[in-house]
Amino acid sequence: MSIIDFVFSQRGLDLLRAVVIAVVGLLVARVGAGLGSRLAGRYFETQQVDLLRKAVFYGVVVLTAMSVLHQLGFSLTIILGAAGVLSVAIGFASQTSASNLISGLFLIGEKPFGVGDVIRVGETVGEVLSIDLLSVKLRTFDNLFVRVPNETLIKSQIVNLTRFDIRRLELKVSAAYKEDLAHVRRVLLEVAEAYPLCLTEPKPAVLFLGFGDSGLELQFNIWSARENFLELRNTMPERVKRAFDAEGIEIPFPHRSLYAGEATAPFPIRIVDDAGGGGSASDMARDGPSTSAPGTDADGDATRDGDALR
Amino acid sequence: MTELQDVLGIDEPGGLDWWGSFALEVGFDVLAWRIGPLSLQARHWPQEWRLAWRHSGDPQDTAQAFARAAELDETDCRVARFGLRAAGRSLELRPRLADRSVVVRPDTQLFIPPGEECLIYVSTPAWVEVATEGGATLTEVPTHRPSDSWFGANTRDGELCYASTTLARLRIEDVVRRPHRIVSPVTVRNRAADPLQLERISVPVRLLPLYVTARHQLWTQPLVMERAADGKQGALKLEELKLPAELEPQRIAEARQTAGRQGLLHTLDRLFG
Questions:
Q1: What is the reported pLDDT for A288?
Q2: Fewest C-beta in 10 Å: which of B124, B185, B207, B231?
Q3: Residue from B141, B149, B151 to probe the interface with A (highest A Cβ count within 10 Å)
């Protein structure tokens, strides 16, 4: 049979019809997806529009495929029956993917975050690049690419750092015990008032956290616009330190007091001069007994005083 | 800062007005202004203007001066350069209102009894728009950088604005002329059955056009803020500026944005704090 005879035979015509259906179907799928996404773009978010575009495209492609197979003489009943058996096997194998897919749909519907938001998932903080069917793509601030499965997001606590327009900074501040708490509070509030990026409302507040080991523990709460938060976080400690220095407010170092008990005499202290020599006998009489052995200095060497005592 | 001479004579544009067109003279390539807390300088090159500015930090500063100089003094200044095809030999300064709403807090508590209304004069800092002789805007600089603030019922729903404190003067005679402040007459009307405590008022300056009087004071269109009878809703209306005839108010700038009818209906928490 020649090619022309084949083309004009029943089989050839069926094949030709199948090809035409396939081409037209693909065209309709593409045009339909484009039109649908353009119309939906006015009412839905980017990721929802993308989902709709893919749904329309693949939906039309599947229908086209079924028409083509039918045209070629395949029995769809048998194929669907085989697909039913196959789907059980595929279902077991693709549990995770299916879970991610369904989680993705929930995420898109619930909208806890959008593209461009900065979120924290576990220990990962990053900007959302895309919200896809199976996963969300993040870019961390050190420019790493992170793929987070949707299932993980649905099960985890997500913190959206850029949801609201303003944000609070909690600055932990310590002041020495000798400081007047009211004075410290006043100085902190003056620092906030003098800084334009620090919001006047909600009002800055100084909270007393407790009597710490080394000093008074305070928390200084200040607000800023979201885009100024980083600058506030970097600049405010510097301003607080400068104000404390100007007002003579001491920020305490950690320290410990040694106390041996009520019945114990104070620890004897002997001051050694820069030359490293021990004090004179009169020094010892004034200052009390040395902690080192008589006749020796702190290093155990014989001293002039030790000679004098002998 | 370049030594400024307090030039307020009629040979300078506007005289007591800090706005207008300012031209360079031979031998002087720098224009310098002092407008309240703002010190602004502009250095000319054939295809560039270089601006330097700083603030004194004192919002009550009422200094006003203009001078020409040979060199720019950039000490402690913020500097910006503007490239142009042809820089021209003059600059124009135009007064503008703030680019955000201003939350004004009376320095003492103010109550409006039920059924009463009160006219308060509040002032907000002016912004200076610097433009070339061709009309192109180079930048806008505030005469005083107010503190950021937030106005809304909670930290989720509201708007970013500026904060200002007002003496809330109730008589026009008490309004003091300050070159860098713009006065807004605000009528607060309380139609509810309980007193309205005015802790804060959000003045939507973006919606207001700008006027100047014969006394060289900047004013805005008056506002009416009304608390509805249910005590929950609020309405904001704009009124025609009515000042004593001898003040001869003239409109010199349009509003930054126009609000449709929807823009003028607010919940109460968007007007009063």
A1: 47
A2: B231
A3: B149
Domain-embedded: residue A80: yes
Give the chain B residue nearest A192 (alpha carbons). B147
**Residue A287 lies in domain:** 270-309
Q: Say if residue B249 is exposed, middle or buried (CB neighbours under 10 Å; 0-12, 13-18, 19+).
A: middle
| Chain A residue with minimum CA distance to B59 | A194
Among partner residues A166, A193, A228, which is closest to B150 by beta-carbon distance? A166
Give the CATH number of the domain where residue A121 resides.
2.30.30.60
Residue B134: predicted pLDDT: 84
Judge contact between B111 and B198, C-beta under 8 A. Answer: yes
CATH of the domain at A199: 3.30.70.100
B54 neighbourhood in chain A, CB within 8 Å: none
* Residues A183, A149 share a domain: no
Same domain, A145 and A171: no
A105 vs chain B: nearest CA distance in angstroms? Answer: 26
CB B54 within 8 A of CB B39: yes
For residue B145, give how far its alpha carbon lies from the nearest alpha carbon of chain A (Å): 7
In the structure, what pLDDT confidence band is assigned to residue A94 with cuts at 50, 70 and 90?
A: confident
If you average pLDDT over every residue of chain B, what do you get?
Answer: 83
On whether both A156 and A174 belong to a single domain, the answer is: no
Q: Is residue A35 part of a domain?
A: yes
- A75 with A117, same domain: the answer is no
Rounded to whole angstroms, the Cα distance separating B269 from B267 reads: 5
User: How much is the ipTM here?
Assistant: 0.81
Domain tally for chain A? 4
Same domain, A179 and A151: no
Q: Which of A75, A151, A41, A164 is nearest to A113 (CA)?
A: A164
Q: Does A190 touch chain B (CB under 8 A)?
A: no
Say whether A200 and B160 touch across the interface (CB within 8 A): no
pLDDT at A102 over 70: yes
Instruction: Give me the pLDDT at residue A296, please.
Output: 45
The residue of chain B nearest to residue A225, with distances taken between CA atoms, is: B160
* Of residues B147, B155, B156, nearest to A200 (C-beta): B147
Cβ(B4)–Cβ(B32) under 8 Å?
yes
| CATH (domain of A28) | 1.10.287
If asked whether residues A9 and A88 sit together in one domain, one would say yes
Q: Are A170 and A144 contained in the same domain?
A: no
Q: Same structural domain for residues A133 and A147?
A: yes
Q: Quick check: A201 and B150 CB within 8 A?
A: yes
B-chain CB neighbours of A223 within 8 Å are 150, 155
> Are B150 and A223 in contact (CB < 8 Å)?
yes
| Alpha-carbon gap: B146 to the closest alpha carbon of chain A (Å) | 6
